[in-house]
Amino acid sequence: DVKVTQSSRYLVKRTGEKVFLECVQDMDHENMFWYRQDPGLGLRLIYFSYDVKMKEKGDIPEGYSVSREKKERFSLILESASTNQTSMYLCASSPSQAEAFFGQGTRLTVV
Amino acid sequence: SQKIEQNSEALNIQEGKTATLTCNYTNYSPAYLQWYRQDPGRGPVFLLLIRENEKEKRKERLKVTFDTTLKQSLFHITASQPADSATYLCALGSGGGATNKLIFGTGTLLAVQP
Question: Which among A50, A94, A103 has CB closest to B98?
């Protein structure tokens, strides 16, 4: 059974902290994605990666960075967390031009 | 900029009827389009994928159409059931490699009344 695992289900961080959200997939997929989901705004793409060490900006990359050192792991980094980054963060992986598999999501609250 | 629009208002239908959800897009030439279901507090779950050279795809009670001229996809659930109540998202994908972006619409909330 395919699996995308996000490191935390709920996270509370302070303003200004550096935050790491980890995502691991066990399906050997080339592509991995990070989205945030806010009420009324849907899923917005932050960054995606199509291969190890390769990354592309999505629609809202400001304030975020990513790392993909190994094929199975894609990390999202909030360099200096701010309250407007409070959101649900969803990681997904997919083979090329095929269905995406999502993790369970991380609800991040920045106080 | 690229834009995907789905019915912003919730869709309420009676059990047994056919639900039809719409996805329109602009400034985009997708290689494929997907539909997902999302339940509260969970990640989206894939339902169907249709490619740019396909007009229609079916899976059990689900049917998707894709009109690249109109830049629109319709998603149908026939013989709807209360268990079909959820938010439905459409997503557009392009080519492979660095262009393999997958972007989502805002979703349509479907409520099937018994």
Answer: A50
Closest CB from B31, B89, B98 relative to A97: B31
**CA geometry: angle B71, B75, B76, nearest 5 deg:** 145
**Shortest CA distance from B7: residue in chain A:** A40
In sequence order, the 6+-apart residues with CB closer than 8 A to the CB of B104 are: A35, A42, A43, A44, A45, B4, B36, B44, B89, B90, B91
Q: Which residues pair with B59 in a beta bridge?
A: B62
A86 Cα to chain B: minimum distance (Å): 15
The token pair at B15 is 């059990």
- Locate A36 and state its tokens: 């945030």
- Quick check: helix, strand or coil at residue B63? strand
Query: At a CB cut-off of 8 Å and minimum separation 6, what does A62 contact?
Result: none
pLDDT tens, chain B, 114 aa long: 778 999 878 999 999 999 999 999 988 888 899 999 999 989 999 999 999 999 999 999 999 999 999 999 999 999 999 999 999 999 998 866 666 788 999 999 999 999
Q: Would you call A10 exposed, middle or buried from its count of C-beta atoms within 10 A (0-12, 13-18, 19+)? A: exposed
